[in-house]
Write a structure and sequence with these properties.
With about 525 residues, this protein is an alpha/beta fold. It has helices at about 15-25, 35-40, 100-110, 180-185, 305-315, 335-345, 385-395, 445-450, 450-455, 475-480, 485-525, and strands at about 5, 55, 60-75, 75-90, 115-120, 135, 140, 150-155, 165-170, 205-215, 215-220, 225-230, 250-255, 260-265, 270-275, 285-290, 290-300, 320-325, 350-355, 375-380, 420, 425-430. Helix 1 (about 15-25) runs antiparallel to helix 2, helix 5 (about 305-315) crosses helix 8 and helix 8 (about 445-450) packs across helix 9.
Length: about 525
């Protein structure tokens, strides 16, 4: 890689600021403000363009260092010193030598000036390799925190021995904290989702998102890169719900030449799960941090009110909004009937009838395709999920399969879950077709789906009312008045029973697994 270190030109300003934004995005908190700082710093009287540099690779700005004058004040004595910041490197070129080239060039230029030394606040594990030492060695203190490992200095000339006192940066460094100003200035750049996570501040670790899981192998989405990764060893002692799934944000140790190492799973906004297909009650964790669950169902023999209700319960339990997408509207003569029926599943479900091939109803999906949203697609094979995805993606990315005319059953065209990041900042999670979806540990989701029945149950005379022949049953009364159907009540009861049975199995299996681990560690079995 040929790294060119040069002065910044005015034509570079946008690209430099974009690179700085990417370099610091979500490292210290949601978003960043360093790109605004760079913009303002250029106009500050303390800015030193003759010492500042950018790094270029193949015509692209991939790094920058910005120099400015600062002061160390000791009573009446004011010493001018150098500082720099930010030092930024394009995140996909981390550990490629760009930062080191900028640092060596800057220090060489700084030694040709009359400044006695450089004082900075920066990474304590990085700058000592260039000769920096903590400021307590030089009698220099920071006005906010005194001294710390991240507060360092590098002498340039013998005169630095006379520099003592309190360090003050240029006033411009204190003018970039207004959230509305940062938001307004950031709009000119491509959208990146700001995240607030407990793992911030990030130093050596990088922040990415799980794009694929295949047994013990993972793919991390890190900006435009897809990095192969494996788990840190301590994960293998964790329960299944603590392991990364598609959609999880994770911290990881970046490896340019091999597998990166996943260090931790960041807190989730929700987790979609179902019992595994062997009906053991063990949960299968499908996707995390989903905003909308698109329940894709064709309006033909594949249509199942029961299945849509199950998906809606899974969505609501997992923190997502269920959206029923009724496909193949061009082949259906009565879309209104389907829409009205699905709307009765829950007051929280949204319903749209579309034709991906002819664009019918597709404009209604724009409200979900907003930057920062994560949409998970689920449905049975042949429901038109891949065709819908291709329409949303604007390209023939997902393979599509034929549907048997005899029973409207489709063939699986998606073989594993994967996350796709669109150019506008929308994340799409595609999943394999599922003919069945069971219930386990989703009692809140079931209650949210059937909130009308739950409200009626609270009005029953007896708290353990089975809604059969008990006196004072508000549920039977609603059925008698035509406000509730027998079919809806039966579906609610069946899903509840299935959920309770499978959850009990899951708890028992979890108990056995913990006992096995305990005995294995105690007796060194296997």
């Amino acid at each position: 890689m040929n790294i060119i270190i040069r002065k910044e030109t005015q034509e570079d300003h946008y690209n430099t600021e974009h690179m700085v934004l990417r370099a610091f995005w979500n490292l210290h908190g949601p978003g960043c403000n360093e790109h605004l700082l760079v913009h303002k710093l250029r106009a500050a009287e303390e800015y030193l363009p003759e010492l500042s540099r950018v790094a270029e690779v193949d015509g692209r700005i991939v790094g920058a260092i910005f120099a400015s004058r600062s002061t160390v004040v000791d009573g009446d004595q004011v010493h001018e010193v150098l500082t720099f910041g930010p030092l930024a490197v394009e995140p996909t070129l981390f550990a490629s030598g760009v930062g080191a080239e900028l640092m060596h060039t800057f220090i060489e230029l700084a030694r040709q000036t009359e400044f006695p030394g450089i004082v900075i606040t920066g990474e304590p594990d990085y700058y000592p390799k260039f000769g920096f030492r903590t400021c307590d060695h030089f009698g220099i203190v920071h006005p906010a925190f005194g001294n710390a490992d991240a507060f360092m200095a590098l002498p340039l000339h013998e005169g630095f021995a006379q520099v003592h006192g309190t360090f003050y940066e240029a006033p411009v460094f204190e003018t970039c904290e207004d959230a509305s100003e940062i938001e307004a200035y950031t709009r000119q750049f491509p959208y990146y989702k700001p995240l607030r996570l407990s793992c911030q501040w990030l130093h050596k670790e990088k922040l990415g998102r799980i794009a694929e899981v295949r047994k013990n192998r993972y793919i991390i989405q890190f900006w435009e890169q897809e990095l192969p990764a494996k788990l840190k060893g301590s994960f293998y002692e964790q329960d299944a719900d603590q392991l990364p799934v598609v959609g999880d944000y994770v911290t990881f140790q970046y490896n340019r030449t091999g597998d990166s190492i996943i260090l931790s799973v960041c807190e989730r906004t929700g987790l979609l799960r179902r019992p595994d297909q062997s009906k053991t009650g063990v949960s299968q964790y499908m996707a995390a941090n989903v905003d909308y669950l698109f329940i894709v169902t064709a309006m033909n023999e594949d249509y199942s009110y029961n299945r849509i209700a199950r998906y809606a319960s899974v969505a609501l339990q997992g923190g997502a909004i269920p959206v029923a997408i009724l496909t193949k509207a061009d082949l259906c003569n009565d879309t209104g009937r389907y829409i009205m029926e699905v709307e009765t599943i829950s007051e929280k479900i949204r319903v749209h009838a579309v034709s991906s091939l002819f664009g019918i109803g597709m404009e209604a999906l724009e409200e979900y395709l907003q930057p920062g949203n994560t949409i998970c697609f689920m449905g049975s094979s042949g429901a038109g999920k891949s065709t819908l995805l291709n329409a949303v993606l604007g390209a023939n990315v997902m393979k599509t399969g034929d549907v048997r005319s005899s029973d409207s059953k489709g063939r699986h065209t998606t073989t594993h879950r994967q996350l796709i990041l669109l150019e506008n900042g929308v994340s799409i999670i595609d999943t394999p077709g599922m003919r069945e979806i069971g219930m386990a540990g989703v009692e809140q989701g079931i209650e949210d789906t059937f909130s009308d029945i739950v409200a009626l149950e609270r009005q029953c005379r007896f708290s353990d009312c089975r809604h059969e022949t008990e006196p004072g049953c508000a549920v039977r009364a609603a059925i008698a008045r035509g406000e509730l159907s027998e079919e809806r009540l039966l579906l609610y009861q069946n899903l509840g029973t299935e959920n309770t049975r499978n959850y009990a199995k899951k708890k028992q299996i979890s108990k056995w697994a913990k006992a096995y681990k305990k005995n294995k560690n105690k007796n060194n079995w296997d």
